[in-house]
Q: What sequence folds into this?
């Protein structure tokens, strides 16, 4: 499953509201990103007890003290990567697998790492049950990246770190993009887009955000 028309289910009205908010309130303009978010049933990636809140404009708690990111942040981070369907993508912090599903809908292959083994196993099963066949997911320290499949066209880090992990930059191909929340403390970050150059890399700041801490050798 890496493309599809908008689905119709019991939460179609809420999903439509989310999409309108992404367009009008937040200015998301990449139609492929909006289509992906219309296709992936977000309510299946949150705990059953809060399913009714799946399309609200905020992050939500999932298992093991982690979160599923606010829809706007998912859309913005994905839009900044500029995916066209041909890319090999690395995701750090798969969580419940929602961002993974969006990336898998928009790219050729996704390699995803989740630090917590329980979350990794559940996300893998959830993605398989939804028909995704272009995702490889494992548990481990995502700050080290996954050098077996490098270089990557794009890397998305769904947790906030104190800096840009050098292994991730090294695993990007020249011209590849890395999107990551970076901040001096664990409570707030700025969304940073890194582009690898022939020598070193450039970075752009896309403003404040708040993520769970990026735990690992090259994180907190």
A:
């Amino acid at each position: 499953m890496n493309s599809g028309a908008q689905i119709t289910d019991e939460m179609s009205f809420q999903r439509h509201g989310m999409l309108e908010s992404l367009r009008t309130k937040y200015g998301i303009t990449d139609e492929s990103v909006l289509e992906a978010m219309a296709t992936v049933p977000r309510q299946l990636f949150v705990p059953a007890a809060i399913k009714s809140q799946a399309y609200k404009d905020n992050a939500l708690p999932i298992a093991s003290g982690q979160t599923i990111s606010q829809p706007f942040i998912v859309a913005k981070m994905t839009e900044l990567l500029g995916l066209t369907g041909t890319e090999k993508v690395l995701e750090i912090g798969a969580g419940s697998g929602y961002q993974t599903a969006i990336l898998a809908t928009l790219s050729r292959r996704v390699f995803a790492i989740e630090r917590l083994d329980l979350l990794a196993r559940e996300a893998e099963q959830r993605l398989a049950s939804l028909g995704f066949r272009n995702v490889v997911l494992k548990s481990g320290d995502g700050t080290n990246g996954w050098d077996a499949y490098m270089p990557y066209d794009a890397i998305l880090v769904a947790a906030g770190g104190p800096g840009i992990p050098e292994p991730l930059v090294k695993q990007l191909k020249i011209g590849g993009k890395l999107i990551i929340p970076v901040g001096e403390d664990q409570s707030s970050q700025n969304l940073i887009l890194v582009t690898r150059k022939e020598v070193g890399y450039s970075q752009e700041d896309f403003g404040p955000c708040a993520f769970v801490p990026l735990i690992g050798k090259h994180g907190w």
About this structure: The longest strand covers residues 172-185. Strands lie at 60-61, 67-68, 88-92, 109-114, 135-139, 152-157, 172-185, 188-196, 201-209. The chain is about 25% helix and 25% strand.
